[in-house]
TrEMBL record:
It comes from the Bacteria. This is Uncharacterized protein. It comes from Paractinoplanes abujensis.
Length: 215
């Protein structure tokens, strides 16, 4: 039978009410179905914050410990022996000067004694002798000169009380005005070695210079 408008609206409203979800029931189902990890989700940021607090506390404690004076007595370091080098006075002759010195690169068990010769004029005849006293464990390790090898002969003689290093300008050679170096190298005992027994002699033309070495 045909339905009037009022009756039709009543039927539709009843059907709509029947299909309307029960809000309380839905909330209850949602609560029952919610995973148990809800509380840990809230806890994680708190745990992270706690970790930060622990780290900060550790750092601050470390800073405080670093600021606090160390109760342990300081350890005294043993001083390392040092070689002291002075500026020696040169010996002088006619147009010549020479100085003997222990080279700064020498160390506890090895030394280089060197002679620096300065000339204001040309040199055509030259003989340089370096005498190294044979104290304990003295042994030759080498020799050199700033004069080109083809212009000079160099030799060493081992005597009972000394090592004798000799440098001789070869015939026909001429040294221009300037400075020239002659060096003797040797090992020795590890101890402060006295230089009083070391000496040099330079014969250049008619001029002879004799001197010692300083450290």
């Amino acid at each position: 039978m045909p339905l009037d408008d009022d009756h039709l609206r009543g039927v539709l409203r009843a059907e709509a009410d029947r299909h309307t979800p029960d809000r309380e029931a839905m909330l209850e189902r949602i609560e029952r179905g919610r995973p148990a990890s809800r509380f840990p989700r809230v806890l994680r940021p708190a745990a992270a914050a706690l970790a930060v607090v622990v780290v900060v506390a550790t750092v601050v404690a470390g800073v405080r410990r670093a600021d606090a004076p160390d109760p342990r007595p300081p350890i005294a370091a043993s001083p390392v022996p040092t070689l002291r080098f002075s500026t020696p006075s040169p010996v002088r002759g006619k147009g010549l000067s020479a100085v003997g010195k222990r080279d700064a690169h020498s160390f506890a068990s090895w030394s280089q004694q060197q002679v620096t010769l300065h000339t204001d004029g040309e040199i055509r005849r030259l003989d340089v002798t370096i005498r190294i006293a044979r104290s304990e464990q003295v042994a030759d390790t080498g020799r050199w000169t700033s004069i080109p090898a083809e212009m000079v002969s160099a030799s060493i003689a081992v005597e009972q009380k000394a090592l004798i290093y000799r440098f001789t300008l070869k015939p026909g050679g001429t040294l221009a005005p300037g400075s020239y170096v002659f060096a003797a190298q040797f090992n020795h005992a590890i101890e402060p070695r006295a230089l009083t027994g070391d000496a040099f002699t330079i014969v250049a033309g008619g001029v002879t210079l004799t001197g010692g070495f300083s450290a």
